[in-house]
Amino acid sequence: MCGICGWIDFDRDLGGPDARRELADMTATMAYRGPDDEGTWIDGTAALGHRRLAIIDIQGGRQPMTLQDGGRPALALVYTGETYNYRELRQRLAALGHRFDTSSDTEVVLHAHREWGHRDPRTAVSELNGMFAYALWDAAKRELLLIRDRLGIKPLYYYPTEHGVLFGSEPKAILANSLAERAMDAKGLRRALCPIADPYNTVFRGMREVRPGHIVRVTRDGIQQMSYWQLTDSGHTDDVPTTVRRVRELLDDTIQRQLIADVPLCTLLSGGLDSSAMTALAARFSDERIRSFALDFVDYTDNFTPGPGRPTPDGPYVQEVAKFVGTDHTDITLSADELMDPSVRAATLHARDLPLTLGNLDSSLYLLFRAIGQHSTVALSGEAADELFGGYYSVFHDPAHVQRDTFPWYEVSECIALQSLDPGLVEKLDLPGYLDEQYRTALAEVPALTGPASADPHERRMREVCYLVLTRYLPTLLDRKDRLSMALGLEVRVPYCDHRLVEYVFGTPWAHKTFDRREKSLLRAATADLLPQSVVQRVKSGYPAIQDSTYDTMLRNRFTALLNDRNAAVAPLLSVDGSRALLNATDDLMGVEHILILQDFLTDYNVSLAV
């Protein structure tokens, strides 16, 4: 797991001191993503940078990595992530005559492109099972390939320039180059206000994401993108018992693959079905006792108040699973003061690079990862199980949400932050129009149902909902997870994002996914033998938020101070009267916190507004 960056300029030799300094600055921004090593490589018009978090082949996996032809570099690679099937690929490539100098997965990816990707890079990428983002420079073709994994687990951004492109694992790497503009226009502000993944809009004007499952090809003639993977209709014919068995087989294989590491590994345990099943499987297949970590807050369990999406506290279930499975368990207990610590909030913003926030849920996740990083370098997470198996009640099971003609998890009327904005700006942004455009674009991508299920209107709608969640909601969570973990040099793996599992479950009829008339029916049935019955039957409870009035008081005080500061960066966007009314009229301070994070973003990143 690492951070990558680079610069291609077809009209300039990047070997000069100024260009080298800019490449070094770009690479340095990602030191925390790769605290173990640093490397740069420049060959005329191509310049690559790499920061390494050593996970596999600690001594031999240094980057940038090259393959030679006649004593000259033919292919150069900077890679971040993990290819979980690299051992099988290495054997296949060795049988074809390839010789390896290291035992790293990075070298396997290089050879895979030489063997299978010389005509079409999609052939090589399709062989990889993993989470990855990488850049491959072909010296003979003078072309750069930017490649991202199927689900978008690992981030990758690019910024077209007059004569080439800048790229990086994070926006901050690109912004370190003098060619990149630090500006946010109306389009970027729309993205900042809506929790919808939009790879064509990264908040910063001119910057884009490499879409999940896509390759971006950069040549002197321009920039093109191509898809190498997409969700399709599989024509699922397995009955429910067969489907349950297949889900378990895929989970068994996936967990075993993702336990491979040459550094300490652990699991994130919440006491819910997803993380508990994953932890139980990891304990079953690990050669060593698995470490597990859970998030808690001071006095949280004793004073817990049930709320929407959080009917029960995690603590008792976590302890039961840890004892049942036999993990070496640690609770990480946080206070309101820690969550509101200015240095923590600044670090969280710097990690995310975007004015998007889940409030104290982001700060707590950052602090959890910081604590885990003192003991482990790799953690397995249960993220994506809800999105894959249909876990969210309101999104998947509430008819009022399912049937509305927009994203089932979001309506513009729910954007509390809008109440703080200037009315003229709100009209100009036209968030309803933006949201509808995003929705129609995503809807047009949904693969049509085939077979008997295609005659059922509810099955057709649930196919749409599942697609929307996997392609427009899940990426926002994966991005959050990657940024907050890698900011602390912690690699978090997501077994439920294995593309084989995603393909199989996505293609399964909704009636199978809810065969026991509950959420996540397939996952529950496939893993029930591994867990205490209390956890098997537990109703989903969302990621915990602190329940402490001290935190709310801190937010209100800071927001009041912001409204009194006429020189605040966010001031041109605000209606002071509307903001004060919002502060006085609601106990839901997510909108308040969203404005505060937008202020911090504009200030800390020195972003100019063009709205």
Task: Kindly list the characteristics that best describe this protein.
single chain; 611 residues; alpha/beta; Glutamine Phosphoribosylpyrophosphate, subunit 1, domain 1; Rossmann fold; 3 domains; six-stranded antiparallel sheet; 19 strands
Quick summary:
This protein is of the alpha/beta class. Helix content is 41%, strand content 18%. The strands form 4 sheets. It has a 6-stranded antiparallel sheet with strand order 2-3-1-9-8-11. A 6-stranded antiparallel sheet has the order 4-5-6-7-12-13. A 5-stranded parallel sheet has the order 16-15-14-17-18, sandwiched between helices.
Give the helix/strand class: alpha/beta
Average predicted local confidence, pLDDT? 93
Relevant CATH superfamily of the largest domain: HUPs
Helix count equals 25
Strand order of the largest sheet: 2-3-1-9-8-11
The share of residues in helices is: 40-55%
Q: Which fold name is given in CATH as the topology of the largest domain?
A: Rossmann fold
Give the strand content: 15-25%
> What's the architecture of the largest domain, going by CATH?
3-Layer(aba) Sandwich
Please count the beta strands (DSSP E, at least 2 residues each). Answer: 19
Number of domains: 3
> How much is the radius of gyration in Å?
24 Å
Descriptive overview:
The structure is a single chain. This protein is an alpha/beta fold. It folds into three domains: 2-227, Glutamine Phosphoribosylpyrophosphate, subunit 1, domain 1; 240-404 and 471-536, Rossmann fold (3-Layer(aba) Sandwich); 549-605, no CATH class. It contains 25 helices and 19 strands. The chain starts with a strand and ends with a strand.
